[in-house]
Design goal:
Largest sheet: 7 strands, mixed
Strand order of the largest sheet: 15-14-28-27-26-16-17
Helix content: 25-40%
Strand content: 15-25%
Distance between the termini: 73 Å
Number of strands: 38
């Protein structure tokens, strides 16, 4: 390692490291106002000037790289005098009470250290301290960010981080020279293009932009590193607590996934954790009313009812549902509980209704049912193919990284019926009719074959089934596909050429691809494009599902599926291994997945259902049929934070669970990365972690020897013992950061990119010659519109968490997006309430008129239980995984 001399001491530094980076690594806090490690340094504030031997003038430490033998002095008298001068210059007309109100701000700490408080220079003519802030520069209307630009020192960090990290361009500089000032792009921050990610408040050194939570609840006294509980990106953050309460969340600057960034949910939507309606004591419903009981009574009730039902109707009359909200360790215990304690393979999780088609398709084509790449491949890719994913809203940090890649020159192809934010950035937008992705991808494949745009070497070495595939796509000329899909033949050709030639190319897809009756085959058709062009197994390539919830990848991978065990090991192949390690036989009957469990409940065969962290009634399609299933159940055990719709209407016993902030464990994100979560606050009342509840019930049912765990790390060690691909991922190693499986040994670095040399199924993957089958759900004279459902940035799934935060001020309720032409034809005005009706049910909600949707198509989010849009959605399912067809329901629209 090269060395340099800093303040008389010799230090090693890494090549390319700046003086300021080295100083901060050494723990030396050199003042700076314009520097943020997430931004390119440009040395404008002059506070970090240092002397370098041999140079005539001081240099900015933030943008000066260290060199071998360099001699640096950081705090000479001349430098310190210059810093005081620069501080006085930056102060300008600074509010005198600001350093007292916000002493934790970095700029205010520097003022104190240099003796530049209001009392220090009352007669200094170079500093004009205001008695009060300027009300004209204050904006207190945003629910999360307090704006007082009286405290702005023109460091431009808010402007630059909004542009260069988030890509939103909210903060702008107006006027020139001494009139220059910073302001948002709209009349107020709330009315601007702001997406409330909080990056501006996080970087602001003065408190001109600050978090309301800190001002209201106090500065944190303790910081705990953990992982976000929302989407499958898996952002790491620091949880700030004070007196057992969360007061602030900040991004972890060194996190490999989010690289010091967060979205509005990860940064601000934590208020649910201390919501007054948290269920904190066990309850049993008696005589139609919920009654608070002790844990002993609640557990005895659950054990007694499970025992009775199992003895009377057999173990396969009971179903267990794991949770994407719970940890890997807890999902592992859920499936072990089903198989060891109950004696049934009736175990599943919410992956069934979202990305089960991704897992099935990628396993069939490549041999592993998971993302092939790492998020760091985003910065290596030259072309992006985004299919059915609204990434900037549903996976915002990944969306922001893609947006920045596009700004740097990457090409972007978007496949989505709706015009999302990234669609407006796209080089090529393909907006097919919902459910026609297979003809579209087949037509792209045909163009690639016809114009010889394949990767011949890759095809020869790594791919088979070529002739059968060629025959399968022969009919799908771009012109034929255009008729079916509703996009132009020329746009299909352009997309195929761009993806095949402007390499490396990478695919990301979402529920817009999987939640169809051919969801599995949609993903297989997408994977074909990667195989044809050699865009898999190499840097900047791959096929990657963006998983919806924080641990939906992990819940299924831990074995919460009827036909697979931990590590996605097929039950039939891995049975002997697990029986030996667990010391007991596994059930031999075929298990039911979630949709089959509900079918069996309606038929009277399934009698009991235990669900945790999953509001099945609100989340599943065709709510009337789901309700019929619940009505037949003799026992519904709900384990959650709040009285959700499933519990409120059909629960028999409620077990209060600890949240992700109140326990330890691990999550698995969309790129197969295992990361730690850590307890930051104690559970409220008598709430317990899910793992502890499962162990308590197992012990009470006579299986204590198989559930004698003292904590999550011991559970994880058992996971590692049964899952060879995760054997090397110990808690000790996770203290140094997340690891991507496969990671088979303690000296293995993890595997960011799959299929580099071969596939788990062998040296070659087989092209999938799938056929297109039009959906049974077709518009008609009675139901002329097609309804698509999806998520929004500000709400999450069933709204259980975000609905108890100030996010409801940013997105109060679900709304129905209608095209301007359809709105004019029906006489609809913005905000008017309408009735949406299908053959399966109806819902009422306000209208939002937008060009984002095409005529004849509608879009709605599904987060508000008052709207309950899943009363409307259809019962059709993917034929491989039974995943519901949420993205295509024929409806009629009526003005109320």
């Amino acid at each position: 390692m090269p060395t340099a001399i800093i303040d008389g001491h010799t230090y090693e530094f890494r090549p390319g490291q700046t003086i300021l980076e080295a100083l901060r690594a050494l723990g030396t806090d050199l003042p700076s106002a314009c520097y943020d490690p997430r931004l390119e340094p440009y040395g404008a504030c002059r506070l970090c000037l240092v002397e370098v031997e041999g140079r005539p003038f001081p240099v900015a430490a933030c943008n000066t790289p260290l060199q071998v033998g360099m001699v640096v002095r950081t705090h000479t008298p001349a430098l310190e005098d210059n810093r005081k001068h620069e501080f006085r210059f930056l102060l300008g007309r600074y509010p005198k009470e600001a350093p007292l109100r916000q002493p934790y701000q970095p700029f205010h700490r520097y003022l104190h250290e240099y003796g530049l408080t209001a009392a220090s220079f009352p007669g200094d003519s170079r500093v004009e301290l205001q008695a009060e802030p300027d009300p004209a520069r204050q904006d207190f209307g945003h629910p999360y960010i307090r704006v007082d630009l009286s405290q702005c020192i023109l460091c431009y960090r808010c402007v630059r981080i909004c542009e260069d990290v988030q890509g939103q361009f909210v903060w702008q500089a107006f006027d020139r020279e001494h009139q220059t000032h910073i302001a948002p792009s709209g009349p107020s921050l709330l009315e601007s293009a702001c997406v409330s990610c909080g990056a501006c408040a996080d970087t602001c050194p003065t408190g001109a932009l600050d978090d309301w939570s800190v001002l209201e609840l106090g500065t944190p006294t303790t910081w705990t590193r953990s992982t976000c509980p929302y989407c499958g990106v898996g952002c790491e953050f620091l949880v700030g607590t004070r007196q057992g309460r969360i007061t602030q969340i900040k991004p972890a600057l060194d996190a490999p996934v989010n690289k010091g960034h967060l979205c509005v949910k990860g940064r601000y939507a934590f208020e649910y954790n201390q919501s007054p309606d948290r269920i904190t004591q066990p309850m049993i419903r008696r005589g139609g009313e919920w009654q608070t009981v002790s844990w002993e009574e609640a557990l005895a009730f659950v054990v007694g009812e499970l025992g009775r039902i199992r003895q009377t109707h057999g173990p396969d009359s009971i179903g267990i549902l794991g949770s994407a909200r719970a940890t890997n360790e807890e999902n592992y215990l859920a499936q072990k509980f089903a198989r060891v304690v109950i004696g049934s393979n009736n175990v599943d999780c919410c992956a069934r209704v979202c990305h089960a088609p991704s897992a099935e398709a990628l396993k069939r084509v490549f041999g592993t049912g998971a993302a092939t790449s790492a998020f760091d491949d985003i910065e290596l890719a030259q072309t992006f193919l985004l299919a059915g994913t609204n990434a900037t809203e549903n996976h915002p940090v990944v969306g922001a990284r893609i947006k920045q890649a596009k700004r740097r020159g990457a090409k972007l192809i978007v496949v989505d019926p709706r015009q999302t934010e990234l669609a407006r950035w796209a080089d090529i937008l393909l907006a097919p009719r919902p459910g026609t992705d297979i003809p579209l991808f087949h037509a792209m494949a045909r163009v690639i074959l016809e114009e010889n745009l394949t990767d011949p070497a890759f095809l020869a070495e790594r791919v088979e089934g070529f002739e059968a595939f060629r025959a399968a796509v022969e009919e799908w000329t771009p012109e034929h596909a255009a008729e079916v899909c509703g996009v132009s033949a020329e746009a299909i050709r352009q997309a195929a050429r761009l993806y095949a030639t402007h390499k490396p190319s990478i695919c990301f897809h979402g529920l817009g691809l999987t939640e169809h009756h051919q969801g599995t085959e949609d993903v297989m058709a997408l994977a074909n494009l990667a195989l044809l062009t050699g865009n898999v197994g190499k840097p900047g390539t791959g096929v990657n599902p963006l998983r919806g919830q924080n641990n939906v990848q992990g819940s299924a991978h831990m074995g919460c599926e009827p036909n697979t065990l931990t590590g996605s090991q097929p039950l039939a192949k891995a049975r002997a291994r697990f029986e030996q390690l667990w010391g007991c036989p596994l059930p031999t009957t075929k298990g039911l997945n979630l949709m089959q469990m509900l079918d069996a409940a309606r038929e009277g065969a399934l009698k009991a259902l235990w669900l945790f962290g999953y509001d099945v009634l609100l989340s599943n399609p065709d709510a009337a049929r789901t309700a019929q299933a619940f009505e037949k159940l003799e026992l519904v055990v709900v384990q959650d934070l709040f009285m959700n719709e499933s519990a409120r209407l059909y629960g028999h016993v409620f077990l209060p669970a600890a949240s992700n902030f109140e326990k330890d464990g691990t999550f698995m994100n969309s790129e197969r990365r295992i990361q730690r979560i850590r307890q930051a606050v104690p559970p409220p009342g008598e709430a317990r972690p899910d793992w502890q509840i499962l162990c308590d019930v197992a012990r009470a049912m006579g299986q204590g020897e198989h559930f004698a765990f003292e904590g999550p790390e011991v559970i994880w060690d058992e996971v590692r013992s049964v899952w060879p691909g995760g054997a090397g991922i110990s808690y000790a190693r996770l203290e140094q950061g997340g690891l991507q499986w496969p990671c088979p040994s303690l000296d293995h670095p993890g595997t960011p990119r799959l299929h580099a040399q071969s596939f788990p199924i062998g040296p070659k993957a087989t092209l999938a010659a799938v056929s297109y089958l039009p959906s049974a759900e077709q518009p008609s004279a009675e139901y002329p519109f097609l309804l698509i459902t999806g998520r929004t940035l500000y709400a999450f799934n069933a709204g259980t968490m975000t609905g108890r935060t100030r996010n409801t001020r940013l997105y109060p309720t679900d709304r129905l997006e209608v095209s301007p032409s359809d709105a004019e034809r029906l006489g609809l005005r913005e905000g008017e309430r309408v009735r949406v009706r299908s053959p399966y049910g109806e819902a009422r909600l306000p209208v939002h008129i937008t060009q984002w949707v095409k005529p004849g198509e509608l879009f709605s989010t599904f987060h508000d239980p008052e709207v309950f849009i899943n009363r409307v959605t259809n019962p059709h399912r993917d034929r491989y995984t039974l995943t519901p067809e949420y993205k295509r329901t024929a409806v009629q629209l009526e003005k109320l």
